[in-house]
Write a structure and sequence with these properties.
Blueprint: E1 51-56, E2 59-64, E3 75-78, E4 83-88, E5 95-104, E6 110-122, E7 129-136, E8 151-157, E9 161-169, E10 177-186, E11 192-197, E12 201-202, E13 208-212, E14 217-221, E15 228-233, E16 239-245, E17 247-248, E18 251-252, E19 261-268, E20 271-277, E21 285-290, E22 295-300, E23 304-310, E24 319-328, E25 333-342, E26 348-356, E27 360-365, E28 371-376, E29 381-386, E30 392-398, E31 404-408, H1 410-420
Length: about 425
């Protein structure tokens, strides 16, 4: 087990894995792959593990996933130049997309378009996406009374609702940022209902959100005298606060301190993990909480930036939690991928640790729990296979292949197709 501590640096040992690499360059696409083992030969549809959809604006790269988790050469689509984020949903039926807002061309021209959430259904034959539904986000005026487009920051898909967060900067004293949470109901065929929105959150509460779609709970962090909140998501999309905390174990989060920033990272079986940048100690920590009341469990001296969790369907099987870390060595940053196994008490046991060339921005587990996909700051897409007890092996590395990701499953696509008929 990991030692529980708020101030003692934990020495965590990982199991280092072997690695391999992909070797294809998708035709007509920006992704390139490092040389290595041969590309897997085509296999029957029954052996497919679904599709990985990667947004590389303005392209969507759709990779078929073989049973080992490796990616076959992608199909390239140019769907819309103003797609910003992709998200999947728990059953693997649809791909949600956040569209519109600010964008800047290669010539430096700033363009604006309407904010919208879109649902796509993949073709079961090759995974290419077709639009099912779109709903426009009605924008509320900011402190300046204007209706300028904002920037999408989060998108999370659930079985019955899709959730988004977008922000806009206003150069007005006391109101530098406006954050807006919106959601829309999703029918069984992927069609979206009207947008539900909350009143905007203004500075100094630089809202950072995480939605637990299994429990219908939204966690909100940021900078304020109550930097961490748990909110129940009602059927109509409204929020009802059910918990709050200003503690990371025994460390108090200082109100209105520009350096005390708490960011929700991942949640699994009622346990929430957050990143906490503490101004008093100067050491970033991972804080763990239990239940909607946000009871502090423990603090780990780890500077995690991003995390994802795989939750098995059987309650007696352990959860896997992957984290991307970035540590200052005194001269530069050291980036690392770590994977942990979580038991029923919420305790973590490290199963893997590996230094990576650049810090990780995105993590996504395959719904089977047998693969993990990561995207780093320089756009590298890595595919890891997950063995017994959470041990990882690097199977592929595609240079400049990363972006916002979503996974769909073939069986779920057939069910969605039947529901739409």
């Amino acid at each position: 087990m990991l030692q529980r501590s708020a101030g003692v640096v934990l020495l965590l040992c990982g199991v280092l894995a072997g690695c391999g690499s992909g070797d294809f360059t998708p035709p007509g696409a920006p992704a390139t792959a490092s040389p290595g083992s041969p590309t897997p030969s085509p296999s029957p549809e029954a052996t497919s593990a679904g599709y990985l959809h990667v947004l590389q604006r303005p392209w969507v790269m759709t990779y078929e996933i073989d049973p080992s988790g490796r990616l076959r050469p992608p199909v390239t689509q140019r769907i819309s130049k103003d797609l910003k984020l992709l998200a999947d949903e728990p059953q693997g039926r649809f791909v949600y997309a956040a569209r519109g807002g600010w964008s800047q061309s290669q010539l430096g021209v700033v363009e604006q378009s309407d904010l919208a959430i879109v649902t796509y259904v993949p073709d079961a034959r090759d995974g290419t996406l077709s639009q099912v539904s779109e709903v426009t986000v009605e924008q509320a005026p900011g402190p300046c009374g204007c209706f300028e487009a904002g920037t999408w920051q989060r998108l999370k898909g659930g079985a019955n609702r899709v959730h988004g967060l977008w922000g806009h900067s206003y150069y007005i004293p006391g109101h530098n940022w406006q954050k807006n949470y919106v959601s829309a109901a999703v029918a069984s065929d992927g069609r979206l209902g009207p947008i539900s929105r909350q009143p905007p959150w203004y500075n100094p509460d630089w809202a950072q959100i995480l939605v637990d779609v299994r429990a219908n709970v939204l966690y909100k962090g940021g900078l304020s005298n109550s930097p961490l909140e748990a909110n129940a998501i009602e059927p109509d999309g409204t929020l009802d606060r059910i918990g709050r905390s200003n503690l990371c174990l025994a460390t108090t989060m200082h109100p209105y301190d520009d350096y005390d920033l708490v960011t929700p990272l991942a949640t699994a079986r009622g346990v929430l993990f957050t990143s906490f940048a503490n101004s008093e100690y100067g050491v970033p920590m991972v804080c763990a909480y239990q239940g909607p009341g946000l009871k502090p469990l423990y603090a780990l001296d780890m500077p995690a930036d991003v995390a994802d969790a795989f939750v098995p369907s059987l309650p007696d099987q352990p959860v896997l939690v992957a984290m991307g870390l970035r540590t200052w060595t005194g001269r530069d940053y050291r980036s690392e991928l770590r994977v942990f196994s979580m038991n029923s008490e919420g305790d973590l046991r490290q199963t893997y640790a590996q230094e990576v060339p650049d810090y990780i921005e995105k993590l996504l587990f395959h719904p089977s729990g047998r693969s993990l996909y990561t995207v780093d700051h320089i756009g590298g897409l890595r595919v890891y296979t997950i063995g017994p007890e959470g041990r990882l092996e690097l199977a592929m590395h595609i240079e400049h292949g990363g972006g916002s990701m979503a996974i769909t499953l073939k069986d779920a696509q057939r069910e969605a197709g039947e529901a739409s008929r």
